[in-house]
Model the fold of this input.
Amino acid sequence: MNIILHEPEIPQNTGNIARSCLLTNSTLHLIRPLGFNTDEKSLARSGLDYWHEVNIKYYDNFHHFLEVNKNAVIYMATTKAKATYSQMKYNKDAFIMFGKESAGIPEEILVNYKATAIRIPMAKTARGDRSLNLATSVGIVLFEALRQHDFPDMEQKGNLHRLNWED
Done:
C-alpha cells in the first residue's frame, strides 16, 4: 500500500503515520512543503528512531508526484466525498492520499478524483468543521485496504510474552 500526505503540517501526526507505514510494509509519500524538518537532529529530538527504516519518498508538489507515479490509482480521503472508505475496493498497490491538517486536499485536486474520493463517516458537531485526527484517519483507511487483501505479508497470529494461549 501507499500513503500520500499532501503538505502535512504536524510532525507528530506524520511520525505516527510513518510508524503505521513501517509496520504494514507501506510506502509513505510526502508532498512538500512540509510543516516540519526531517533532518537527523529534528527526528532524534522527536523520538523518531525508526524513521530511517520507513520507505519514504519526497516530492516537490502534487504535479511532481504524478510525473513519478504515472499509473497510480489514487484514492482521495476527504470529508467532501460521497462514498465511504469501506464502500471502496482498493487495489493491492493503492495510493491513498490525505491532505494537510488545517485544510485537507485542495479542491483543485479533488475535482479530478470524484470516482475514488472517500470519506470516513462522522457525527456532525456544533461547529461543523471538525474531523478525525490525520493519523487516526490514515489508520482507519489503511487497515481497511489491507483487510481487503487479507493483510499481505503481515503477522496475523500473536503470542503472549511469558505465558501461552490455551487451545
Q: What stands out?
A: The domain at 2-147 is CATH 3.40.1280.10 (Alpha/beta knot). Strands lie at 2-6, 27-31, 56-59, 74-77, 83-84, 95-98, 117-119. The chain has five helices and seven strands. The first strand starts at residue 2 and ends at 6.
